[in-house]
Amino acid sequence: MNSQRKKFKIGVFDSGFGGLIILRDIIGSLPEYEYVYLGDSARIPYGTRSQETVFNFTKQAVEFLFKKNCFLIVLACNTASTKALRKIQQEYLPKFYPDRRVLGVIIPAVEAAVSCAKERIGVIATQGSVDSGAFIKEIEKINPKMKIFQQACPLFVPFVEEGEHNSPAADLIMEKYLAPLKKKKIEALILGCTHYGIMEKKIKRYLAGVKMINEGKIVAAKLNDYLKRHPEIEKQLIRNSKINFYTTDLTEKFGKLGSAFFGRKIKPQKVSLE
Ligand code: DGL
User: Measuring from atom 2 of ligand 1, which residue has the nearest CA?
Assistant: First the structure.
């Protein structure tokens, strides 16, 4: 009876394999559950796409994960969180999956930043996330007086996807993007994109003294807290520590770099969302 009731998994979605860094931290903190990871590698990047497209892609991903029996989905992708989450929560879920939950990564990151900065916060993210204004809106909800400085870093994702984020070329690009933020004397910097966490050390070196808000651990702690506050959901989750990885484009790179990001070997399976 008891085992019959425990039938759901936790889903983690990203536009590519960057979200594996977030899944790694989630599993580090909550290893007991069963997880399904989906990376939409065939259609990355999301960061340059329209709101309508990001919503449609995200909706397909969420649907796939629900069909895999996920009760709760974390949109590890910041662009999906900034451009699709609201509509998913307000329109899609009530109509199609009223009992299930989809959570994003923006609010946890913003709360962490606001708690350690008095006046000045920097945000780096994809162009889409910057243009959405979602980080600004959420920060201002907590502290309307906070000064916020945003910078889109569109070249970081391809550098990371190519495994070139430690190259001298990546250093030059980083300086170009971060020099304006350095002048703004920010106290905290939100690494508002799945792929930036892996660059934390070098960004921290360049912006010495600035507190880095790296989403992995923050999102993991928030999920832990969420499950404690929602025992009715937690008690339905399967506890077998299994993880299945899916991608929409099975390339050697996904397996290789994905394993490096996740910290252990992964064997992704290819799926189609269309
Ligand atoms: N996953 C995206 C994000 O966190 C970055 C990659 C993309 O542009 O799709 O915003």
Answer: 77
Q: Cα(232) to centroid of ligand 1, in Å?
A: 32
pLDDT at 163 over 90: no
Q: How far apart are CA 104 and CA 17, in angstroms?
A: 17
For the cut 50, the answer to whether the pLDDT of residue 104 exceeds it is yes
Q: How far apart are CA 5 and CA 200, in angstroms?
A: 41
0.70 exceeded by pTM: yes
Ligand 1 centroid to 125 CA: how many Å? 8
Closest residue by CA, ligand 1 atom 1: 77
**Pairing, β 147-152 against β 243-247:** unpaired
With 0-12 / 13-18 / 19 or more C-beta atoms within 10 angstroms meaning exposed / middle / buried, residue 165 is: buried
- Which residue's entry shows tokens 């520590």? 241
Kindly give, in sequence order, each residue whose CB lies less than 8 Å from that of residue 160, ignoring residues fewer than 6 positions away.
18, 195, 196, 198, 199
**Residue 32, C-beta contacts closer than 8 angstroms, at least 6 positions apart:** 239, 241
Query: If we measure between CA atoms, which residue out of 262, 231, 264, 232 comes closest to residue 37?
Result: 262
Mind listing the domains of the chain with CATH numbers? 2-104+217-270 (3.40.50.1860), 106-215 (3.40.50.1860)
Question: What is the Cα–Cα distance from 129 to 51, expressed in whole angstroms?
Answer: 10
